[in-house]
Amino acid sequence: MRKFFTQIPKAVELLKANPTLPVRAHIEYSILAEVCLKHLYPKSEVTLNSPDSRTGNIEVTIFKSDGKKELVHSKKNGQGNITPDNVAEIMQRVIRFVE
């Protein structure tokens, strides 16, 4: 059985982000990434491919209002699963790109 992490890790709670910024993201197969992104940016607009699919292609792509985008995490590119141990690092990459 697949385990879904939905509780925000303490390391993410300690991150500083501007919660008023409008962030757009496309997240493939990670509820944890979506929960953490919405914690940092409550006004974020997230499209999420369901984790029920079994492809394992876990990715987080962030879009700026100027049209620029960045793939901040990709399991396909060797960065592995998104877990409570590494999600703060992923969110730091989001913050650096957005702010």
Write the layout of secondary structure elements.
Blueprint: H1 10-13, E1 24-28, H2 31-40, E2 45-49, E3 59-63, E4 69-74, H3 87-98
Parallel strand pairs: 1-2
Antiparallel strand pairs: 1-3, 3-4
Helix pairs in contact: 2-3
Q: Give helix % range.
A: 25-40%
Oligomer: single chain
Rg over alpha carbons: 12 Å
What sequence of helices (H) and strands (E) makes up the elements? HEHEEEH
Largest beta sheet: what is the strand line-up?
2-1-3-4
| Number of H- or I-type helical stretches | 3
User: What percent of residues are in strands?
Assistant: 15-25%
Number of strands: 4
Distance between the termini: 38 Å
Mean pLDDT: 89
Stretches where pLDDT falls below 50 for ≥5 residues?
Answer: none
Overview of this protein structure:
The structure is a single chain. The chain has 99 residues and is α+β, with helices and mostly antiparallel strands. The chain has helices at residues 10-13, 31-40, 87-98; strands at 24-28, 45-49, 59-63, 69-74. Strands 2-1-3-4 form a four-stranded mixed β-sheet, covered by helices on one side. It starts with 9 loop residues before the first helix and ends with a helix. 25% of the residues are buried.
